[in-house]
Amino acid sequence: MANLENFVTEAVHAVKFKMIRERQDVDNADGCFSPEMAHQIYGDNESIFGYKDLNINVYCSAGSLDIYYDVSYSKKVDDLTNNQGLKADNVHVITEVFPNGYYTNLEEFLNTMEKKSKTFEPFGERLCEYKNFEIYMCESSTPNFQQYHARLESFIFWFIDASSRIDHDEKWRFFVAYEKYQDSHGETRYASVGYASVYLYFSYPDKIRPRIAQFLILPPFQRKGVGNKLFQTICQHFRSQSNVTDITVEDASEDFQRLRNIHDARLLKNLPSYSSVNLMKGFSTKMAQEAKDNFKINPKQSRIIYEILRLGITNTANRVDYKNYRLEVKKRLNMNYLKEKRDMKRVMDRGFKISADKKLSLPSTEENIEQLDGMYKETEEYYQGVLERI
């Protein structure tokens, strides 16, 4: 029996994406990128069993995102003599996230790509230009957009945790970034770069509260300022609308929250209520209201920005100032713990019993202090990184 370790492959290493602009890109070693995660496709351990030297190539036409899919390997465990009944995993489960079909014939894919690239143009309304990038806004009703969006949305399973496809309705807005480039013949072409989806929630009595649900810039275009420009464009679009209360974000990733904090801190640091004198007095309702009125930033987010900006002016060598700052941050970090304790006490005061499991799930006062210290240290280190950028 062969060494079975040779038949186990990490999915994030096996899968390779490449955006194809022209035929010669297929043989170009540059331009490939790997997924950040694969558990939503290949299971929690993110491994594929049963193949040796496994390669899964996914080529996408740069503009319309049509897909070519190819799998290769040198050996399969099913074909081995005396394989003890072992069966290889279904490597083709990946195709379940390919909407609208895919190509397995490379020549057919390339011919289609060359034809479509000549006519492919961005969907919707152009909102801004940034260097050689353009950002457009679409609705679910934008002609032919939903099929394109389904292909673009396929990437979220590899780069955004706990992802799921959306159900299109009239309350969705989509902000899509494209790169405008010249092909080898000097013709203008467009490549898909990334997108954000925003849902327009109702805000009583007659307003809306946009919530950013998904936000993705494809790896070849990251660290070029496109993500920041896309977020700016979304915020500017909704700030101009009088019926918008504030802008929220759904389950922001660490990278996106950093981008958001940098953007918002640059705005709020110039408001009167965020002056150095006011920052040292503590977070106030005036700060929250001014952030909301001027930039549609919600109170929870404006509180975080207050903490970041206050750290920037706090003399950490001054024992009193630094202690006061730490207490301010820990007050927010400790809110959930205190709420759980209050809820538990309220239940007990009413004569109900609390299960042993529920009691054990709540840390003791000593454990909470230790956890809070660790959370604070991580938060301050993170805030310092944001301050370096602004």
TrEMBL record:
SUPFAM superfamilies: Acyl-CoA N-acyltransferases (Nat) (SSF55729)
Swiss-Prot/TrEMBL catalytic activity: L-lysyl-[protein] + acetyl-CoA = N(6)-acetyl-L-lysyl-[protein] + CoA + H(+)
Active site, UniProt feature: E250 (proton donor/acceptor)
Enzyme class: transferase
InterPro entries recorded: Acyl_CoA_acyltransferase, HAT1_C, Hat1_N, Hat1_N_sf, Hist_AcTrfase_B-typ_cat-su, Hist_AcTrfase_HAT1_C
GO terms under biological process: DNA repair; subtelomeric heterochromatin formation
Binding residue positions for acetyl-CoA: F215, L216, I217
Site feature: Interaction with histone H4 N-terminus: W172
Subcellular location: Nucleus
GO molecular function: histone acetyltransferase activity; histone binding
Residues annotated as domain Histone acetyl transferase HAT1 N-terminal: 8-161
GO cellular component, as recorded: chromosome, telomeric region; nucleus
Region (Interaction with histone H4 N-terminus): 44-46, 199-201
Residue ranges of every copy of the Histone acetyltransferase type B catalytic subunit C-terminal domain listed in the record: 260-311
Assigned keywords, A-Z: Acyltransferase, Nucleus, Transferase
EC number assigned by the record: 2.3.1.48
Family to which this protein belongs: Belongs to the HAT1 family.
The protein, known as: Histone acetyltransferase type B catalytic subunit
